[in-house]
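Work Package 4 report. The design task specified in the project plan requires that, given a folded chain encoded as structure tokens, an amino acid be chosen for each position. We show below one input record used in the internal validation round.
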């Protein structure tokens, strides 16, 4: 189901942007062949590939794995959706991206001994990490910071960062990603067109 959602969303995002596969490849850094395979359902992207797509199209991560929502003032319980990419960190979407708040929230799972590294996100992106089970470490500004149950960090995510679990127990943490108010907020309407990079012209 996750692969199908990604395939449908990627194709829709590219169509709204009016980009060919070649232009989308230049914009995102994901090869034309890989983009085509993802859209045809012949390949499952890694979480690193999804972040390249999100950064290139100036969209939140959940734009490719969920239906974007607009807060309406009613408060309904969020339904966590489990997602697991082979050989990668496991996570549930707790709250998809909401332009009213400019953030999206995940429940992340780190297996014992697992390390997950993340490239820099767009300028101004900030992450919150709140440990809900076990112990882990967060790589911030080149240094690993220890976090245990109940600990929290807020750090700039527009630089390389990472998470690791060096214990013998599973670690869970909430990860909220805050996006700056840039063109991202103009692309949350289903009929909106993402801003094209000069590279795609």
């Amino acid at each position: 189901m996750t692969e199908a959602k990604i395939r449908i969303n990627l194709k829709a995002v590219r169509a709204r942007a009016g980009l060919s596969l070649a232009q989308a490849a230049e914009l995102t850094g994901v090869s034309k062949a890989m983009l085509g395979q993802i859209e045809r359902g012949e390949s499952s992207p890694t979480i690193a590939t999804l972040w390249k797509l999100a950064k290139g199209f100036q969209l939140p991560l959940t734009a490719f794995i969920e239906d974007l929502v607009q807060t309406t003032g009613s408060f309904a319980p969020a339904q966590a959706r489990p997602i697991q990419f082979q050989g990668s960190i496991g996570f549930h979407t707790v709250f998809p991206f909401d332009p009213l708040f400019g953030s999206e929230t995940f429940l992340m799972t780190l297996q014992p001994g697992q390390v997950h590294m993340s490239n820099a996100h767009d300028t101004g992106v900030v992450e919150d990490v709140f440990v809900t089970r076990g112990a882990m470490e967060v790589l911030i500004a080149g240094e690993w910071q220890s976090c245990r149950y109940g600990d929290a960090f807020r750090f700039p995510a527009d630089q390389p960062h990472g998470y690791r679990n060096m214990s013998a127990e599973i670690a869970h943490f909430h990860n909220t990603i805050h996006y700056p108010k840039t063109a991202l907020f103009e692309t949350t309407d289903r009929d909106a067109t993402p801003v094209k990079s000069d590279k795609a012209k």
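The helical segments are 2-17, 21-28, 32-39, 47-57. Validation will be extended to a larger panel in the next phase.
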